[in-house]
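User: Structure please.
Assistant: Input sequence and predicted structure:
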Amino acid sequence: MTGEFRPAPPPAVLRPFVLRYLGYREESATPVLRRQAPAAGVALVFGFHSLELSGPAVGSTTTAAFVGGLSDTWVLTRFTGPQAGIQVDLTPVGLYTLLGGRALPSGAVPALDELADPVLAALPERLAAAPEWPARFALVSEVLAGRLLDVRARRPAPEVVHAWRRLEVTGGRVPVSVLAAETGWSRRHLQARFSTQIGLGPRTAGRVLRFSRASGLVAGSRVALAEIAATCGYVDQAHLSREFRALAGISPGGFRTEWAAAFPFVQDEAASGEQDQPA
């Protein structure tokens, strides 16, 4: 298998909504299976080639361009042959704004042409026609800025944004009762509005944020699992393992092994100090 990952920061003006851009180009003569575990960001994928998706919530489907909302379950991707495109990692606040005031339910991975959004649906073809990564990133920025910075854009309630950011900066370690008190809303009202605009309830979102940090450490380091459990606020390694089974469908050791096998060239780059971190 050969490949490259080209991460790039979004323009500063988009950073409240966009976490990063990632250009990718790969090719494999044999099937490549990857596990996409719940993460803190929302993946907007402008792919140029078909990709098989399967999982507890998505079933089984094939698409090239899609978006996955904030989720508490995993998706498996599989391809043979070439893959290329750009992945945009959005915040849930960014996705709500981009989609004109709606969130996706947990586990939903709709194809872009299912969103009744001709601009987004046409973007993969426009990106494929662009000559180089900088031109592609610039085109993505132009489209996103037109939506996310529009003064008429529908945005989540300020109280919801506050609750999400508090969960984000604390790794999900703020009780819902505290978030409710800080917003001035009742717990029930906060849970309802947060779920509608972020895609998960605040308690589950906090759980996903904590898991996202842990899975990043498991995949991208050789740190002992017990140490990762303590760092991320789990009671012990057994607690960490239960969360991996529940949210990723695999043990943390199996997840680490899968990740290393699925991104061998990234492992090589990491070893040489030139790592480009994939999703």
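The longest strand covers residues 18-36.
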